[in-house]
Amino acid sequence: MTKNQNWKRLAAAGIASLTVFGSSLAAQDELPSREEMWAIIQKQQEQINALLERVDTTETKLVETEQEIEVTAGKVETTASFVEGYVSSGAASGGSASAAERTHLGGYGELHYNFGKADSADFHRWVLFLDHAFNDDIRFVSEVELEHSIAGDGQPGEIELEQAYVEFDLNDTDTAKAGIFLVPVGILNETHEPATFYGVERNNVEKNIIPTTWWEGGVAYRHTNDSGWAFDAAAHTGLFAPTSGSKAFNIRSGRQKVGSAEASDGAITTRATYSGTPGLQVGFSAQYQTDIAQGTLAESIDATLVSAHADYQRGGFGLRALYARWDLGGAAPGINGADEQFGYYIEPSYRFATEAGDVGFFARYSVYDNYAGSASNTEDAFFDIGMNYWPIENVVFKWDVQFTDYANSAKDEEIINIGVGYHF
């Protein structure tokens, strides 16, 4: 760079400095006055106040919005609870699908052939179960039975409503029910599907003394515990026994089947069962009714039933035994000996599996007497021997021979019974 060029640069820098200095002086001349500054401040204050007012308004709206959100959340929760309950009750989508899942059908039936002094064939029982669970804790149970195939005037059979009750789970161990139910006594009265017992016909003791099938109307309570004990208590309609004729004070003839039943005098039934040992069940029942004549006599005919049973299964070996006894008060039952009525049976059996299904053999000795208080011999005894064949668990073919020993020996006979039964 030449000396002349340096001078030119210094001159240009000096001119630029003078220009900046001059502009600064000009800017000082343009500053607002005090009044103008005051006006500017007031205007800015107004803007600040407006902003603050908008902030307050926004905060108020925010609080209101939060409150609305809380209300909406509550409504959503309420709606969700309603929908959940609606669905669980089976009412969703018209209720059809869920209600169908909670409704169950079942049943059993049995055909008998009896060859003795008189030969007969009888579709003895056709039974339909209809159950419905309203929810996990409340359910309806029913059982309708057609006996002897044909019902109506002059026909041998009848249609019976044997169970129709509503049951409530009170907790994990306690239930209660109200309606028509099977009386908790004996072995067969509550469990009598054909494939669950030996013999074409039900044994005479549980038929004439218990008397199976026996149902009443009322309320019942059941408690179970982990030790294997269960306790039942029921208050229900009672027997209405005939007080004259050949069936005077006959227990089985006293069943009213809850059909326009006389309810002047009810009964109480209690039962304790133990099933804490695998394969074993024992049970004890007691019932008391203050008057099985239902006030038709000048005296009350109180009746007390006690029964005990055992049902034992170990491997293929089985053993069933039962004892039951009635004691009737008052003078009238003692006239024909009906003040004491009892029965018992013992039934050993053996069951084994084959490639075509299970086969079981049994023998049974049974005795019952509806007039045990009589001085005469009124005791009837029976010896049964036979077999069951189960092609599957729920279907059974039966065969047995019964040798009778009636108090009236003229009635004695040997009866061959053949039957088929099922349940589902």
From TrEMBL:
Keyword presence, NAD: no
InterPro entries hit by this protein: Porin_dom_sf
This protein's record includes keyword Coiled coil: yes
Leader peptide range in chain numbering: 1-26
Ranges in a coiled coil: 41-68
Keywords for this protein: Coiled coil, Signal
TM annotation in the entry: none
Annotated protein name in UniProt: Porin
Organism whose genome encodes this protein: Pelagicoccus enzymogenes
